Amino acid sequence: MTSVIDLNADLGEDESPEGTERDIAIMDIVSSCNIACGGHAGSPASMRTMLAAAKIRHIAAGAHPSYPDRDGFGRRSMNLRLEELEACLASQLQDIAAIAAEVGISLSHLKPHGALYNDAQDDRKLAEMLVKMAGTASLAVVGMPGSIVQEMALEQKIAFIAEAFIDRRYTAAGRLVPRSEAGAVIADEDDRIGQGLALATGTALAAQDGSPLFLKADSLCVHSDSDGALKTAINMRLALEKAGITVGSAH
User: For 101, which of 53, 134, 149, 241 is 20 to 30 Å away at the CA?
Assistant: First the structure.
C-alpha cells in the first residue's frame, strides 16, 4: 500500500464553456493533468487556459498528444509511417511547450492519448519513439504498469509513471477493455471509487472476466469526458484521504 498517490485527469478536450468550467474545477481536486495539444482535441487557446489554471493551482501539467484524428477523438488506431507520426507528435509537443513557456509553467510529463496510448503499451517501435521523445524533452513518460513503455523507459533511464484508470474496465491481461465493448467504461460511481481504492492499496480489482487483477500504480486517472467526472474526482480524493492516502504529484 502506498501512502501517497497521484490523481490525474485528461483535460482541455472540450472547449465549450461548460467543458472548460468543469476541467478547471477538476484541477482543484487532482494533483496533475494531461492537456490535449491539438491531435485529437485542443487549441492554442485551450492549452493556454489549462496551463494557466494548472500554474495557479500548483499542479503538474503534462502534454497529451495523440494520433492526428480529431474526427475520431484520437480513439482510432492509424497506420502512419513512424517518421510521419513522430513529426506529428513532435509538432504537438512543440506547440504546448511554447505556450507553457509563455505562461511560465514547466511541463512535467508526456502521456499519449487514446488509441496511441493503448497501441504503444505493446508495440516496441511506438514505445521507443515515445520514450525517446519524452527523454529529449526532459519529461517523464506515462504508461501502463507491465508494458513495453515501462520496459523501454527503464532501459533508457527515463522517468516512468505507472498509471491506472478508475473509470475503465480491464482485461485479465491488464489492458483496457476496448470502448467498443459493453461495460468498458465503468458507469457506477461506487464501482469507480472501489476500483480506485483497490489500485491505490494494492488489492485485487475485478477484471472483465471476473478474475482478480493486481496493478501497481503511481497515478490514478479520471477521464474528464466520462459522465460525472467532477463528482468522481471529488469522491475519489475523499475516499483516498479517508483511507490514509495523500493525493500528491508523482512527478
Answer: 149
